[in-house]
Amino acid sequence: MVMMYEVAEASEYLVITGGWIKDMKLTKKSWVFPGQRCTRIDLSPVNYTFEVQAMSAEKLPFILPAVFTIGPRADEPDSILKYAKLMSSQSTTSNHVTDLVGGVIEGETRVLAASMTMEEIFKGTKEFKQEVFNKVQVELNQFGLIIYNANVKQLVDVRGHEYFSYLGQKVQMEAANQARIDVAEAKMKGEVGSKLRDGQTKQNAAKIDAETKIISTQRQGEGKKQELKVETEVKIYQNQQEAMAAEANAQLAMKKAGWAKEAEVAQVESKKAVAIREAELQREVERMNALTTTEKLKADLLTKATVEFETKSQEANAVLYAKQKAAEAYLYEKQKESEAIKAAAEAELYQRKQKVEGELYAKLKEAEGLTALAEAQGTYIRSILGAFGGNYSAMRDYLMINGGVFQDLAKSNAEAVRGLQPKLSIWTNGDNSGGSDAMKEVGGIYKMLPPLFKTVQEQTGMLPPSWMPQLPTDQN
């Protein structure tokens, strides 16, 4: 496989998987290296037409034809990844997306229809469509799909359940009956209107005659009223002129009295104003004196407070400085103690490390010595075995004699026998003549060997070497 440069179409994305890619790589163009696989996914929306058979809350079945325009959510990379995983799970020629969308739409439509009556579904087609749209969209989000458009057609009856046909006939009959009622009402309104117009004409004529007589009578009364009104206005004008003259005289008298009063008030006010001004000036003088005394007291108190504040500040600063120095000394002491503890810990760690390394080295050397000893013993045993011509029994007997095994066994048996305080028997051949005492002792020892070898055989199961005297066999 060679390296290739792939470029996607305007409505496509490249999905690259394989070597050097953790999960999936979405891109418009990229190099495809050996060990990688490139798949093209189309993001164009697709129209899905369904005829969903559902049942209302009254157990009335119906068919809901619907057309959904569904496609991947192209503005969200996570949704494209979900759609890419969905498409990669099946072959490119399968209808798994159509089956998936159809299953979701049918399931949600049936659940929603089961909670609504047929009248609610029929009258609220827009709301029913929106509910189906929302519930289907929630399920499609997990696959990275979005509904671009949803068109729910007119509801259709199921064969054998002609609910909508009967409902249409009912609507047609109601419309026909309403039309008949409207025609009858129109005829009635025409006849009643004709009679009403004739009566209104006669009423209007009589009304006009009555109004004419009333207007003529009113005209005559108004003429008389106008004459009386002119006479009355002349008398009223004369009375008004006389009243105006009397009022002018009264106002003149009142003004003269007011002017005299104002003159007297002005004199009193001028005297009082002088007294008020004097009191104000006296109060201002006293206020200034009080302010002066207050400022003096403030200055004295402020000076004293300033001195006390500076004294207290210096004392507080001295205490703070002493505490800071004490804290710094304590901190320095603790740092030095921690450094000393750290150095001691490091020294102890190094000492333990050296001790462990020394013990490890001693163990290694001891193991090497044991290995060398084992190798030397192996060489020694191989040499002895070669010297005996490969006779293992002869080599074993030699090693036991050389190692003093028989002597140890004899000594152990003697110690055991001594502890038991046995009765000893000395075997002889019964001939004590013809020899010295030394030879008698040797002969006695030699005679003791068969019972000794027999005891060794019974306790250990080992036979004496071939070059030594053998045990006598029992003769029946």
From TrEMBL:
It is found in: Cell membrane; Membrane, Caveola. The keyword tRNA processing does not apply. It is a lipid-anchor. Pfam families: Band_7. Residues 9-187 form the Band domain. It comes from the Eukaryota. Keywords: Cell membrane, Membrane. InterPro entries: Band_7 (IPR001107), Band_7/SPFH_dom_sf (IPR036013), Flotillin_fam (IPR027705). GO terms for cellular component: caveola. The keyword Cell membrane applies. Belongs to the band 7/mec-2 family. Flotillin subfamily. This is Flotillin-like. It comes from Salvia splendens (Scarlet sage).
